[in-house]
Design a protein that fits this description.
This protein is α+β, with helices and mostly antiparallel strands. Helices cover 33% and strands 26% of the residues. The chain has 4 helices and 6 strands.
């Protein structure tokens, strides 16, 4: 597999990396939760990106003129070949360090799927929230360590459990 990096096309993001240690002035991404299983889809970052070989979120730099929600959805299309309805996004957490900001959203989908990966992702897998892989990217760890973000994720998972339980009981009659 031949990989072409287009740093020249992303010179502003590269300048920000040199200045702040982060790719771009701002970033956005998302965690995908399957409403039928309660599991989350996480990407394993490839060796060609910052923080390689860590499990993180789908996301990246916000381009000029984009808002975080639009950037997160674009990054998901680019990195996983997936389009999600923007109304399924819930803002979870904003990581800040100096002037850098990274907004993470929770996206809910109806069923698990296999993403079409690009060069930024080595592989992707569905995990239960209580049995996540290691090592986690520091950004994902920050989201999961935030009590409000964790509560939002767990609340979405509980609605999955309630729906599944009600559906199962209804089918047993």
């Amino acid at each position: 597999m031949k990989i072409r990096l287009s740093i020249s096309n992303d010179s502003e993001h590269k300048k920000a990396l040199d200045k702040t240690g982060f790719w771009g002035k701002q970033g956005a991404g998302l965690i995908i939760l399957c409403s039928s299983t309660g599991r989350v889809l996480l990407p394993l970052r490839s060796g060609y990106v910052e923080q390689p070989h860590t499990w993180g979120t789908w996301g990246g730099a916000i381009n000029e003129g984009e808002d975080p929600r639009t950037a997160a959805l674009r990054e998901l299309r680019e990195e996983a070949g997936v389009k999600i309805n923007p109304s399924t996004l819930t803002k979870l957490f904003v990581f800040t360090k100096g002037t850098f900001r990274y907004t993470t959203f929770l996206a809910e989908v109806n069923s698990e799927f296999k993403p079409k990966l690009d060069w930024e992702t080595e592989r992707a897998e569905w995990f239960a929230l209580d049995s996540l892989p290691s090592p986690l990217h520091f950004g994902l760890r920050s989201v999961l360590d935030d009590s409000k973000a964790r509560a939002l994720i767990e609340s979405a998972q509980q609605s999955v459990s309630i729906t599944t339980s009600v559906t199962t009981k209804a089918r047993s009659f």
